[in-house]
């Protein structure tokens, strides 16, 4: 049932010791919405927020999850916990020139705990924690919105009162079901935003808890102010935006606790009015609390700066093209256009994309571009809201609009490009916190409409419809985040000009073995962005495998010309040149790759193959040894060393290398097979047999394993077993080289033995 009445739980004058906004109108008076007890309101919000994103619980690791989780060594037990404090979000050293300087050690710590409890990279546990976090945050929003919309008031017993239960429930529901939050909840790396939001809200609630009221006036607890600062620091250690809560606490203190009229204060400051003390700025405790917040924030930022170093993050033009524009006008226009797109995503979250870079949003270079209208609309609305927030005669209206704008704008400032360059154009995850401000403004707008509307129930039904549509949109978007294929393909219709979207679709197809379709998308990525070296590299790799070597060479040569330090492209170019039998050029390409990436085991492995083709055996062995030093589990390099030593008659050395390799990689059946061959030639038949059988147990369908075990039995004199394994080998691969001839020799020998026996 929809109610339009005063809060049934609101305290009367006898219950409250003092009202901070005693003469202000109650927002709930005009809101046609459900009235539920606090406990039930929180249960409803938790349930609905869970339903929105529940279908993401069994999704895969997608997009940035690979780099932040699967390839992040900081998650593994062998990495010291202390390293987390000196590495960025992706596991790179903060001092590295390639680091993005995203310092989020507490988020990485939760990933590590997830990994340890799950016993590996199983995404279900990661997704479940994200869903629980969003549900918890949505529940906390009920309390936060009750303060922001209804004011901060306490009973005689010191219990905080909810003076806007209907409005706070509506705002919390709007937050819980907003589709723009899907990236944070369904994408595992979004946990940084979720943890940041959790401690952000706890810091705000802690700051509110610092205030108690009595008949003499306001008192406050320094302890809770300091707790709020600490929680703000924890929020920042989860994600950079967390530090902004200290500024918002100061704004809340000035507007709600001290009821400062900003316009009046500005006027008195400008005219140096002697009655400035009456404006509330110098009221008891305010300056002290602001000083605590400022000192805490400055200390936190200084420590972070010391850990991070002075170097700025390394971003490229494709990440954020507007920030690389030479013209200040072009930068300003495009930054403002990005702001309008973020605002639109809050208002109409229908077109969502996992990545908005790489040409998805072409630069505005002239005032004749029709998209200028979006900027005008944004600033028209903002200026209108700011004027109302400053100039309205209604103090209640001023307070809510200022808080709404504060929560909308201040948490967004780190992503605004105003203070430093960011590595994205638009990112849905960064408006998780600013959406709090949107929900405040929406709810207040709804209350104003309800006040004017004659048929309030129709308006309430319309809002219910919006909530229902958002729930369905969240469920749909969550399902798209379940797998990379669905996620990447969903972006094709939203950002068809985004080269990275086509690149990711192509990469996903290539990983699944569909090379023909992958080529189409890689070509489109290169067409959209002719300097997209990663697309050129991957396309060149596929063409190399399809033996289209000349086109592959052209693409890889262009890639290293555009980005001379692209080590992977240099290595792949070397592989192509090796296949074209241009050995000197291939060797030069390999060494160039190693020059740009000192620790490059795969490149040493390919260099070893080149030297082996040129019969430079010592150089080949040295290259493969370098590969295994850099990557001890490099099975191919170990195998090639064993085989080369075996083929050149160095059986003792081959055996020593084989045993060393198996100590490091004890379950690698290919190493067992190679060492078994060496032991067989050394007439260590029993040990060789055991290794062959172990290799066959691990890979029973390898024809060569059965064939070589048969040869061992043949030499050893176990002819019946030799016959059995020859037959198994021929059944698995009738064309196995040498096996048929050996089998025929064995059969003739068995026939001769039978004749002699007869």
Automatic annotation (TrEMBL):
Keywords: Endoplasmic reticulum, Membrane, Repeat, TPR repeat, Transferase, Transmembrane, Transmembrane helix. One of its GO terms (biological process) is endoplasmic reticulum unfolded protein response. It is found in: Endoplasmic reticulum; Membrane. This is dolichyl-phosphate-mannose--protein mannosyltransferase. The chain crosses the membrane at residues 33-54, 131-151, 188-208, 220-237, 243-266, 286-305, 372-391, 403-424, 430-449, 458-476. Belongs to the TMTC family. Its EC number is 2.4.1.109. It is a multi-pass membrane protein. GO terms for molecular function: dolichyl-phosphate-mannose-protein mannosyltransferase activity. Pathway: Protein modification; protein glycosylation. Signal peptide: none annotated. The gene is Tmtc4. GO terms for cellular component: endoplasmic reticulum; membrane. TPR repeats lie at residues 499-532, 533-566, 601-634, 703-736. Residues 311-383 form the DUF1736 domain. It comes from Melanocharis versteri. Pfam families: TMTC_DUF1736, TPR_11, TPR_16. It comes from the Eukaryota. The keyword Membrane applies. The lineage of its organism: Eukaryota, Metazoa, Chordata, Craniata, Vertebrata. The keyword Transmembrane helix applies.
